[in-house]
Design a protein that fits this description.
alpha+beta, 16 helices, 10 strands, 17% strand, Alpha-Beta Plaits, single chain
Amino acid sequence: MRLSTKIFLGLFILTFIPALVLGKWVFDGINFSPTGFYYVFNAYNIAGLVLIGLNSIFGIVLYSRFLKSLKLSRAIFFAVLPLTIFYASAMFLIASALTFDGEVALFLRSFLKITSTYNALLWAVLLTLVYLLIVFLIYAFFCRPVQRVEKIALRLSDGRVREESFDVGSSKQFKNIEAALEKINYNYKEKENMVRQTDLEAQKFIPKQFLKFLGKNSITDLELGNQVQKHATTLFCDIVSATKVSASLSLEENFNFINSYLNVVSPIIRKHDGFVDKYLGDGVLAVFSRPESALECATSVCRAIEIKNRGQRSLPNVDARISIHTGEIIFGIVGEEERKSPTIISDVVNLASKMQEINVLMGTKVLFSKETLNELPAKYQLAYRHIGLITLAGGETTSLFESLENYPRKKRERLMHLKHTFEEGVRDFHERKYERARGEFKEVLKYVADDKASYVYFNKACDKLEEDIS
C-alpha cells in the first residue's frame, strides 16, 4: 500500500466516526413540507455536513484506488455496484411514493409531481435511461485501456513500434499489461537489432551486390536453385611469390600473411563497386557491373601492393597478377538444403587461369580480354597494348590486352610510343613472320630493355627461326 493511500485511509477513519455521530443533527436539520424542504442551520449540523463531505471525499479517493487495484472485470463490477444500489433505492422510492405516508413520501410526491402511476412510470423510465447512460460511460472509461492495448498490439504486429514506453491505463492489471508490452517491444527491437547485425555479418559472406544481382533484399530470401544470368566483368587477382614466401613461414604466420594482402585487395574491390565472389587461397575472384571499374580497381591494387611491399621489409616482395574478362555469368545458389552457397558459374574461372599463365609467362601485371575492351565507354582513357591471342573453350580465340596504367610514368610513355611497333611484332609472330617479328621486338627492347613481354616474344621468334633452319 502506498504512503498516500495510508494517509487517506487514516483521514477517512478519523472523519468517519465524528461524521457518523453528527449525522443525527444533519438529518434533524432537514424539514420536509408539501411544497419542498428547508434546512435549519446550527453549529452541530454544519460541522456534521463538513465532516460528512470530507469523509465522502476521502472515501471516493480510497474507492477509486481500490478500483485501480482490481482486474478489469472486478473493477467494472465494483464501479457499477454503488450506482446500482442507488438506482434500486430510487426506483423503490418512486414506486412507493403513492402508497407510503410520511414526510419523505409527501416530499417526493410534491417535488417530483407524482400524482398518478403514469407519472411514477415516466420517472422510472427516465431514471433507468440515466442509469444505463452512466453504466455505459463507466464501461467506456474502464475499457479505454483495452483500445490502447489493441492499437499497440497491432503496431507491434506490423513492426511499427519504436517507443521506449507505453501509456495503457492506470489500473494494476493494465500496468502489468503495459510492462509486458514494453518488454515485448524491447525484445522485438533487440531481435531487430540482432537480425540487422546478422544481416551485416552475412554480407561479409554473401555480399549485398550478389543479392542485388539475384533481385533479393536479404539473405533470408535466398533459396536453393535461385539463379540469374547477367552480363558482368570478372577480375581474378593472384598474389605472385606467395607460395614461395609461405614455405618459409609457420602455419599461423602463413595465414596472417595471406590475410594481410587480402585486407589490402578486398577494400579496394568494394571501393570500385565490385564484390568478392570467393577467395581461392591467395587469389581473389571479384565481380563488377562495369568493366572500367574492374580496370581502375586493378591499377589501384597494383599500386597498393607496391606501397605495402615498401612498408613490409621483413618479408620478400610480392606482386599481383590480374586477369579481367567480360561476358555472361550465372549468379546462383548451389549446394543442398542444409548447406547453401552463393557462387558464379561461367567459363571465367578457366579463362582466368589461362590468362594468369600468360601473365606469368609475359611478366605482365594486368591483362584483359577483347570482350572487356569492347565494353569500355568510347571516351574512356586507357593506356594499353595488344599482347596476343588466347584459345577459349570450343577452340575459339580472343585477343588479350595489357593495361599499361600500373607502370611508372616514363616507362608507360615509352611503351605507348612503341605500341604500334610491339603490336606489329605480335601480329607478325602469329602470322609466322618470325624474322620481321624479331626485328620489331628488338626495336622495342632497344628503348625499354626491361619489357619482359618483348623479351619473351623476341626469344620465341629466335627459337622459331632456328627450328626453321634445322
